[in-house]
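Need residues for this backbone.
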């Protein structure tokens, strides 16, 4: 926040030398995001899928967990899409968009959903890497990850999985360094935008965008997820009360993984979920159940594409709802993963990623709310799975 305020003041002063330095620093950060985002997300998805396992004794438990995960994640993204149309965030000032390279999404509104889906399927394993085609890379990542999970246990499989995990840890280390100097990037983005734009116009456009994101999270948290619980005969007020320690910890730590021990203890000791269920479902949900992330990816992608000149149509929304769900499922364990993934998706289609720089300073607040929603959703899934399988011997 201090960097945001300082950057806004420097931009408002409109000193040419300061503006030039801010532009250079903002460009450097944008390029670093582009460098790290795609390989980080691809490795996260491969490793997530590879570690799922296929044990016959856990098959039914896993199927129920995956079903509820998909249902809640799709509903979260759908709520975001409905709010996006209802609130209709306006575009950022044309001066900013005009300074960006061609978006690469012109005419996308006229393409059919079928055409979009076909274009995602790669016909050359090297080309997506060379062209930075993020959608094709995500498809390949899911295929490779699932294939690895189905390979019989062997020394070769172990070496491959450990190698991929090592690469992911290396990239996370690099991201950690980038995050440490992130205030400098926020200062530069804020100064650049403050110098270029009218604050009132930006606030109006961004305010509606934030309202869509946080409003969607609130509806999912207080309405949709409780309805899921009521449909299974579970009291949502009691469930939220018992899981409140985990939800509050998630809000302030911004990490589902760091909150997991508290989530498991609250589910077992307070909510009454059987340990065999909680200790299987919750770690999986922490990995793949990302309600808030799916909504953020969808809403932010639509907002950025709209600012790049695309007309947001129903086929476009359906395509990106699908992409946001599968992307969120493979996103766990990556610092600022939702932001990086959305950035890489927008960069891959040539949308104006400068808009992501404006979103960056407020992402911390969004991340807090999203993490709390994710943990609450994890808790709901574990409670519903336990309810459905209450007669099964674990």
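Answer:
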């Amino acid at each position: 926040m201090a960097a945001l305020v300082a950057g806004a003041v420097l931009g408002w002063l409109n000193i040419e030398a300061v503006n030039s330095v801010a532009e250079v620093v903002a460009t450097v950060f944008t390029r670093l995001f582009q460098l790290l985002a795609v390989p980080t997300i691809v490795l996260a998805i491969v490793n997530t899928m590879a570690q799922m396992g296929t044990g016959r004794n856990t098959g039914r438990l896993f199927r129920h967990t995956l079903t509820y995960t998909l249902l809640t994640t799709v509903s979260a993204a759908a709520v975001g899409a409905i709010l996006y149309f209802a609130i209709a965030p306006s575009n950022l000032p044309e001066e900013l968009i005009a300074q960006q390279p061609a978006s690469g999404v012109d005419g996308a509104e006229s393409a059919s959903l079928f055409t979009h889906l076909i274009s995602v399927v790669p016909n050359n394993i090297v080309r997506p890497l060379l062209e930075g085609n993020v959608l094709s890379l995500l498809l390949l990542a899911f295929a490779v990850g699932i294939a690895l999970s189905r390979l019989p246990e062997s020394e070769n499989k172990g070496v491959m999985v450990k190698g991929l995990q090592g690469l992911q840890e290396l990239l996370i280390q690099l991201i950690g360094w980038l995050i440490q100097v992130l205030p400098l990037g926020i200062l530069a983005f804020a100064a650049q935008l403050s110098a270029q734009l009218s604050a009132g116009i930006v606030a109006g456009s961004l305010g509606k965008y934030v309202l869509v994101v946080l409003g969607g999270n609130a509806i999912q948290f207080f309405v949709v997820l409780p309805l899921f619980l009521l449909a299974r005969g579970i009291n949502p007020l009691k469930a939220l009360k018992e899981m409140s320690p985990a939800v509050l910890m998630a809000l302030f730590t911004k990490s589902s993984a760091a909150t997991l021990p508290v989530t498991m203890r609250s589910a077992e000791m307070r909510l009454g979920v059987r340990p065999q269920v909680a200790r299987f479902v919750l770690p999986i949900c922490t990995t793949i159940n990302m309600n808030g992330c799916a909504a953020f990816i969808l809403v932010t992608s639509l907002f950025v594409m709209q600012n790049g000149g695309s007309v947001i149509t129903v086929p476009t929304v359906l395509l990106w709802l699908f992409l946001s769900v599968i992307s969120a499922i493979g996103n766990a364990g990556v610092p600022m993963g939702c932001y990086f993934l959305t950035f890489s998706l927008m960069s891959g289609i040539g949308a104006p990623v400068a808009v992501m720089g404006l979103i960056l300073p407020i992402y911390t607040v969004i991340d807090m709310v999203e993490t709390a929603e994710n943990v609450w959703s994890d808790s709901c899934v574990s409670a519903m799975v336990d309810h459905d399988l209450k007669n099964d011997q674990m």
